[in-house]
User: Which sequence fits this backbone?
């Protein structure tokens, strides 16, 4: 019942802005997800000064609504060292991921799959969408639970600050 209440709260919530990005003391993160070819990959391997590990699923309406803005954020902030690892929790795998990416015209984010939801469990992801922010050393430094207003200049400024710019 508690999980359902949280999910409903996340769905009904307005997009999170800079104030909703909760920073934390850096803590090591060791998660593995899969790329399109089934190879294991740590999201921190994407080489950013800051990596947004964005957990989502094709059946999550809020995830679908915010995705164009997070795709635009990746395009706009790539040169600043920000990388977005969009990690799908879809049990139907790449066919569902690809259908969603095509329908939403996603071109910028790196799509990955948490096939057995092990990464989400390890990071205690409370609901979708959730974005875990990793520094260049692969440590969690912030988290945003729920949809983000990725076009919000305050939120982008906080990300730049976390990236060391």
Assistant:
């Amino acid at each position: 019942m508690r999980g359902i209440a949280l999910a409903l709260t996340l769905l009904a919530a307005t997009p999170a802005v800079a104030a909703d990005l909760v920073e934390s003391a850096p803590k090591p993160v060791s998660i593995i997800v899969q790329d399109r070819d089934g190879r294991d990959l740590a999201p921190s391997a994407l080489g950013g000064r800051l990596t947004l590990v964005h957990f989502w699923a094709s059946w999550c309406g809020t995830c679908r609504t915010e995705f164009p803005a997070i795709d635009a954020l990746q395009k706009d902030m790539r040169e600043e060292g920000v990388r977005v690892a969009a990690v799908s929790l879809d049990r139907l795998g790449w066919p569902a991921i690809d259908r969603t990416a095509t329908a939403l015209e996603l071109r910028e984010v790196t799509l990955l799959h948490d096939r057995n939801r092990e990464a989400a469990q390890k990071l205690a992801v409370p609901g979708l969408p959730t974005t875990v922010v990793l520094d260049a050393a692969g440590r969690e430094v912030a988290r945003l639970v729920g949809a983000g207003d990725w076009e919000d200049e305050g939120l982008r400024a906080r990300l730049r600050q976390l990236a060391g710019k």
